[in-house]
Amino acid sequence: MEKFSVTVLGCGSATPGPKHFTSSQVVNVRNKLFMIDCGEGTQIQLRRSRVAFARINHIFISHLHGDHCYGLLGMISSFALLGRTAPLFVHAPWEMWNILSAELDFYCRDLDFKVEFRGFDATKAEVIYIDRSLTVTTIPLKHRVPCAGFLFREEPVPDHLDRQAADFYGVPSCEYDRIKNGGDFTQPDGTVISHDRLTKPAPAPRSYAYCCDTMYNPEMIPQIMNANVLYHDCTYSVQETQNAVKNFHSTSADAANTAREAGAGQLVLGHFSARYNDETVLQNEACGIFPNTILARENLEIDIL
Length: 305
What we know:
Layout: E1 4-10, E2 24-29, E3 32-38, H1 42-48, E4 56-60, H2 72-81, E5 88-93, H3 96-107, E6 115-120, E7 127-130, E8 134-140, E9 148-154, E10 160-161, H4 163-168, H5 176-180, E11 185-186, E12 192-193, H6 195-198, E13 199-200, E14 207-211, E15 229-233, H7 241-247, H8 252-262, E16 266-270, H9 280-287, E17 293-295, E18 301-303
Parallel strand pairs: 3-4, 4-5, 5-6, 14-15, 15-16, 16-17
Antiparallel strand pairs: 1-2, 1-18, 2-3, 7-8, 8-9, 9-14, 10-13, 11-12
Helix pairs in contact: 8-9
C-alpha cells in the first residue's frame, strides 16, 4: 500500500506552552509532503520529527489566527538560508495575501525562490490542489473568522490486472490498460471475458479530514463522510460547553458526534486548551460516543489505512 500518513507537529490551542506547540501537521502522500498550518515552533518540530524541510512544497493555512500561521514567515526565511530554489506554494484565505506580501517585502526581499500565493474563499468548498494521486478540497468550518478545513483524498486507481487470468484467456498486453480501466476482453471466437474475471479490485481511495478550528458543524458532515481519519477540534471538555459555543470551538462530545455521524474510521482529538494537564478526560468523554478515538500529541505519526 502506498504511503499516506500524518505527522502532528503541534496540537495545542491559542498559545504555545511547555506541553504543546500550536497547530501544524505534515501530510505524506506517496512521499510528497504537504504542510497544514504553521504555528510558532513549527520549524523546531520539523527537526524533531525528522521531516525533510526541502520536500515541503505546499503549505495550507486554515485561517488567519496567529496560532495557525505565525510560524510561516520564519520558515520561509529559513528556506532561503538553506538555499532553496524550488517554488513554495502557499494556499490560504485571500485575506492573508496583504499581510504576507508586506512581510515578504520587508523581511525576504531577495529570495532565490518564488512564494506562489494561491488564495481561496474559506466559506466555500473548492478543490485547491490536484495531481494524479491526490485531491485537496477546502471544508468550510464555523469559527470566529473565515476558516477552512482540508480534505485530502486519494484519486481512484484502476483495478489490478490478474496476470494469471489474463494469460489463461490469451489477453494481449496491448489490452491491459483498457481492461484495468473497466473494459471486457473479446476472444477471437467472440467469447466475452468480463472485466471482473480478469482483474482484482483496487483498494478504495483513502481520505484524511482536518477540521480545526470549528464549533460543531453538521453542514460539513456530507463532505467528510467515510473519512479514514478525522482530526477534529477538541478545545474543551463537555463541562465547558458554554465556552465552546462562545468561542466557536468544540467539545470532546462535538468531535465524537461528528465522527460518528460522518462514519469516520478513526477520530484524532486536537487543539487542546492549556487548562488540561491530562487530556485523558477528553478522550474518555469522546470514547463514550465514538470508541475509536485517540489523542493527538507532538511528533505522533498516524498512518491512514
